[in-house]
Amino acid sequence: MKRITLLVLILLACIILLLSNVEIHGSLSTRFIADAVFKQHRFDEGFDRTGEAWRTRISWTSEWDLLIPQTNIVVHAPGWTIFDNLYVMNGTVFVVADAPETIPPRKTLTSTGIEIKGSPELVKARLPTDREMRIISPEDAIELFGSGATLIDGVTWMVNDPPQFIHHYYHFVAELLFGFWRTYSSLDPSISDSGISALSTPRRIWFVHLDANQWRDPPSLNQWVLRGAFPSLTVEYSNDWIDRAELGRPLLLDRVLFTDRAASMQGQHAHEVGRPLAEACALPGSLHWWSPIARNAMQFAGLVDESSLVETGRPVITYISRQKRGGRMLVPEHHERLVEELYSLRDKYGYEVNIASMEKLSREEQIRLAARTTIMMGVHGNGMTSLVWMKPSRHSTVMEFYIPGGFTTDYQYTAYALGITYYGWWGNVSFSDENLPHRAYPEGFHGSQIPIDGAAVAKACVARLQA
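Structure (tokenized):
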């Protein structure tokens, strides 16, 4: 009897163990299958099995649903144009359109890319030919390109300028980058003050006429700004352009922002203002159009807390001094008086006052200082480029000192484009956007004896900050 009972117990134990093993195995199998499905799902998410996962080529036929994509001009101002479906082959840009009369004049789109000088011969030599750009019908495009093209997806910034100006910090950031982003940002009128935008990040920049060294400025600010604002951006140069041309294959670019300084000079706004940027700034857009770039640069410089910026603390006055650099400078005694007057404002009103020699600051320090500055002042010239990092507000102001009778719109227009109040100074006389003088470059314009009335400047600072 005991033996039978023992055998029954052993049999029950084996059955229980077997059932448990099946359950465990089933559970493990289910989990493995689930993991496999999850992994397969994740794999499928990143890889399209149709064969076009990388979108490397687009094909077309004569069938209605597979016609060659035509070029669409999304935004245009002379020298600043956004194209969808722009073609490039053998180093020539092609606009494919069945209604060529709808395409703006070619000279407002591109140029030959030679240096910009004023002689009639060189002005004529800059006008584009069929070597630079052709406007062709879809039928001609199919005959020329065949049944398809290599696809360059995403947003491409194509710069058709010569190296003449680009290696200069002001021209690169406050003209070229400014104009590029002002044009591109016109597609998103809802850009917020904090820099939030629905715009896709540009994938690449193509310098058609520059090698790898010709866009870099001596203080390395150009490359710092570009890498800081667009960390994922890739850069191609003239030798890469030649490489692609020598392939002899048609390229189809998804979206291109095509910039050309010479073409912008064909526009009325650029002619009136004297700034190529003026054409881009005539486009509609958000008041905060520059915020995404400024935000990225500030974060790259280590300014991650916007609560430290303008209007959240005491006003910051920054005088950018050139007194130890040579070239354009204030009369020495006037410089000393200006510094005294500014320090008096610090003592009386509690303003933060900085007498800054930018060449002594790191790139990060320059950006951080400018981003905190409420009023920026200095002798006209390249040092004032830092105003692009100021945060526009009702008190933000730029003051630029000139030899009496002299004036240029370089930094006045930059401030205007950002919504920052501008004052130019001739000694004790100031002028603003409402009463700007004509551009003029009298003797002493770039000299070391530029006068300024420090007391008048200090008084104007108080008026601005208490407005």
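Residues 320 and 356 are 5 Å apart (CA to CA). Residues 305-466 form a domain with the Rossmann fold fold (CATH 3.40.50).
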